[in-house]
Amino acid sequence: MQDFEKALEKFLKKRDLVLKRMEDDKAEIEKLNLQIAQLQLAKIKSLLGCDESGLLEIINQHPEQLEKLKKNVPESDAETPGQTSFFESKPIHLRIEFRQ
User: For residue 13, is pLDDT > 90?
Assistant: First the structure.
């Protein structure tokens, strides 16, 4: 019986280490997702030549473009390579077109 207890304790310790690594990895993925989102926002603002308030103003003035963007996101851009749905939602890459 002692052998079973030792083996059980060994596997429980291993499992706890794996769970800890998963938590650490999830936190790292969340940090990376935040950095990715910030870069994507900076890119959009740069392309449009505006700050965040200007971007919000554009979105509010042209809601039809936002709906068009949601429908036209290519499947390849809808997922971040290497990320699984087990973690946080994936960032979406948007291409904005405004017609006047």
Answer: yes
